[in-house]
Design goal:
With 406 residues, the chain is α/β, with parallel strands linked by helices. It is built from seven helices and 29 strands. The protein has four domains: 162 residues, Molybdenum Cofactor Biosythetic Enzyme, Chain A (3-Layer(aba) Sandwich), CATH 3.40.980; 43 residues, Molybdopterin biosynthesis moea protein, domain 2; 88 residues, Molybdopterin biosynthesis moeA protein, domain 3 (Beta Complex); 71 residues, MoeA, C-terminal, domain IV (Beta-clip). The two termini are 48 Å apart. The structure holds ligand LQZAQKY5 and molybdate ion. Ligand LQZAQKY5 binds next to α6. It comes from Kibdelosporangium banguiense.
Length: 406
């Protein structure tokens, strides 16, 4: 009897299943430059103040403001210049009343000085200097702790580390950061018809593309992708290919071989080996599998390229982001009006590829619902989400979008 009674899992419950399978990644202390895109696992306090010492914001002369009162082009004030203080000078050279030290940007302010006269307002003298303008106290000074006080909490756990955060933490002299380890994801495509790009295609063969998409998507969220050579529809080939790699990874993602045909290599190889095959109420992306194969968490995605990509987007991406400690696991959403009508199967949440036009606030469906339409996906900037209980969206109807761009 045909198996038409398999219970469909809801999108939300399957998301939770995948997140629980992936779990949290362990915390490790990584060199700051290696942390781009990772997430702080603990709060960071400032080990030093920034700036760490009072210093000059300009190339010029450190003076006491009272010594240059009344200075002008016509009546310059002449001061002897006993010291030159380039940036990086570490000894302390106090300023005596009635003198000026030549000083460069970033050099420590000499005790006794309270202002900087920038070089453009002087004759640039070396032994002595003529100052052509008065400066109020505090001119062109950068004060200790003005940016950060020593001991202050400067970034909190959950902060995503981009270039500004990494540069700032380096400025504090912090060499390593507590972050959750990058997920190491093993990727295996299956299908006898698959050929590596660059090689000739025979009739009936296609280029393997799922692993390229999935690996890029893993890397985009901070993971490390390890792509295996694709395997034909042969369970022994699948076991042998996986065997050497089961230990050093956090997750295995396979694509293909999970539906109802005669050669379902992933289903055949992993049924009874800790992997459960289910159907999710989503289109594309219905046939899914999850479990643990010999200690390694596994997600088996359907082979159709858009189905595999959407499965990653809907289930794997949020799970990996959560595993990394990222508080922002969902894409930005947007309301829009549909530029044309769309049909959707009853009881399934459909994701159509779309183009969101911010000017007209319209969502334009790109291509049809078919899960082989790769060009349409590549030309999209959003997914149009059609809920389970909606079978038709009329032209001009309101839709929710999942934005694929920031
Ligand atoms: N009788 C039924 N047939 C199908 C059903 C079903 O319920 N009953 N479900 C359909 C749905 S929905 C999907 S999705 C696919 C999933 O099938 P598989 O996971 O077994 O995937 P394959 O059959 O191996 O491949 C499907 C399709 O995708 C191409 N493909 C596969 N891997 C790659 C790759 N790495 N790169 C590029 N393209 C790939 C493959 O050539 C096929 O065209 O099953 C439906 N059928
Ligand atoms: O549900 Mo399949 O994943 O449409 O293509």
């Amino acid at each position: 009897m045909p198996n038409t009674t398999t219970r469909l899992r809801s999108v939300d419950s399957y998301r939770a299943t995948v997140s629980a399978l992936v779990g949290d990644l362990p915390i490790e202390h990584l060199p700051v430059p290696d942390c781009l895109g990772l997430v702080l696992a603990e709060d960071v306090t400032a080990p030093i103040a920034l700036p760490p010492f009072d210093n000059s914001a300009m190339d010029g002369y450190a003076v006491r403001s009272v010594d240059v009162v009344g200075a002008s082009e016509e009546n310059p004030v002449k001061l002897p210049v006993p010291e030159d203080i380039p940036a990086g000078r570490t000894d302390v050279v106090p300023l005596l009343p009635g003198t000026a030290h030549r000083i460069m940007t970033g050099a420590p302010l000499p005790p006794g000085a309270d202002s900087i006269v920038q070089v453009e307002l002087t004759d640039s003298g070396v032994e002595q200097v003529r100052v052509f303008a008065a400066v109020p106290i505090g001119t062109h000074l950068r004060r200790t702790g003005e940016d950060v006080r020593e001991g202050a909490t400067v970034l909190t756990a959950g902060t995503v580390l981009g270039p500004p955060q990494l540069g700032f933490l380096a400025a504090l002299g912090i060499p390593r950061l507590p972050v959750r380890r990058r997920p190491r994801v093993l990727i295996l495509s299956t299908g006898t018809e698959l050929v590596e790009p660059g090689k000739p295609l025979a009739h009936g063969q296609i280029y393997e593309s799922n692993s390229v998409h999935i690996a890029a998507a893993v890397q985009e969220i901070g993971g490390v992708a390890h792509v295996l050579r694709s395997v034909p529809d042969d369970t022994d080939a699948l076991y042998e290919t996986l065997e050497p790699h089961l230990k050093e990874h956090d997750l295995l993602i396979t694509t293909g071989g999970v539906s109802a045909g005669a050669y379902e290599v992933v289903k055949d190889a992993l049924t009874g080996e800790g992997v459960e095959f289910v159907r999710v109420a989503v289109q594309p992306g219905g046939p899914q599998g999850f479990g643990t194969y010999r200690g390694l968490p596994v997600l088996t995605l359907p082979g159709n390229p858009v189905s595999a990509a959407l499965s990653f987007e809907l289930f794997v991406r949020p799970a990996l982001l959560a595993a990394l400690g990222n508080p922002q696991i969902d894409r930005r959403r947007q309301r829009a009006t549909a530029s044309s009508s769309m049909k959707s199967p009853a009881g399934r949440r459909q994701y159509r590829r779309g183009y969101y036009d911010a000017g007209t606030v319209q969502a334009v469906p790109v291509g049809g619902p078919g899960s082989h339409l790769l060009a349409a996906f590549a030309q999209s900037n959003c997914l149009i989400e059609i809920p389970e209980d909606v079978t038709e969206v009329p032209e001009g109807g309101e839709v929710d979008l999942v934005m694929l761009i920031p």
